[in-house]
Automatic annotation (TrEMBL):
Its cofactor is heme b; Ca(2+). It catalyses: 2 a phenolic donor + H2O2 = 2 a phenolic radical donor + 2 H2O. It comes from Castanea mollissima. This is Peroxidase. Residues 19-323 form the Plant heme peroxidase family profile domain. Residues 1-18 form the signal peptide. Ca(2+) 2 binds at T184, D238, D246. It comes from the Eukaryota.
Amino acid sequence: MAILLVIIITFFIGTCEGQLAFRFYAQTCPNAESIVLSVVQDAIARDPTMAAALLRLHFHDCFVEGCDGSILIDNGPASEKRAASHQGVKGFEEIEKAKAELESVCPGVVSCADIVALAARDAVALVNGPGYQVLTGRRDGRVSNLTLAAAMPDVNDSIQLLKAKFLEKGLTEKDLVVLSAAHTIGTTACFFMNKRLYNFFPNVDGVSSDPSINPTFLPGLEARCPKDGDVNVRLAMDSGSEQLFDINILQNIRNGFAVLASDARLNDDETTKSVIDSYLSFPSPSSVQAFEVDFADSIVKMGRIGVKTGFQGEIRSVCTSFN
C-alpha cells in the first residue's frame, strides 16, 4: 500500500473574493469527498482502465483555461472536449454521475472542477499510487472552445517545446517528469505511434523509426501497431505494469522502452534525465517514496493552475452545460 502523503501547502491560490482550501466543503457538503470516492471505486471495479482515464481528464482540464471543468462542457461541435488534442479522453460519465449524486444531497455547492480533481486523486490511490490531500473551492469556468486547446502538450513535441509548455503553466522540468510518469497506468492508441514508428524525423541512416527505441522493443511495437494498421488498437504505456502506479515507467524510459515519444524525450535532455536518474540510481523503498512525494506535490501544484474562486465562474448544475 502506498504511504498516505499529507501535502502541506503554506499558501492559497485565489483572488480577494475567495481561495482554495483543504476540506472546503466540510461545512456545506461534508460527504462530498466520500461520494466522489464511492463513484470512482465503482468505476474502476467495472473498468480498471478508468483510473488512468480520470487522471488524464484532470491533466487535460487543467492545461486549457485552468482547472475549471471546461473540458466537460458539451455545447456542440466547437466545444473544447472535441479538440484533437483531447482525442481519447474519457471519464466524463463518471464525473457526471458523481455530480448527480452530489446535487441530490448538496445542490449548487460542489463544482465540477473539484469533482475532476478529487476523482483523479482517488483514482491514483486506488491503483497503488500515493494518497494526497486536494485543495478544493474551484469554481466552474464559463468558456469552452476547442481552439483554446491548441497549445496542449503533444506526444510528438520536442523536449524543448514540452518544457516551454509546462513552464507557461508555472510547472518545472521536475514537474514535467513526474507528471509524465503518470503514464505508468493506462494505454494509448496506435494512432499516436505512427510518426514515431514509421515517419520519425530526423531520419537516421534511412531508418524511419525513433532511434531511441530499444532494438529489442521495436519489433513488438511494430507488430502491435503495423503501418497502415488499425489505429484504434490499444497498447500499454508502461509495459508490464500498466494497471499499477509505480516508478517502473521511469526505468522503461531510461532503458529505451518508452512507448510514447514524449516520454522518450525525457531521456534526451540533461535536466529531465537527471530527474529520472535521481529516482533510479539507488533503487530502494526510499526512492519510491521520494517519487510518490514528488508526484503528489506536482499534481497538487498542477491542480492550482488558473483556478476560478470566489465570485469567478459558477457552480454548474450539470457538468456538461453552463447554467
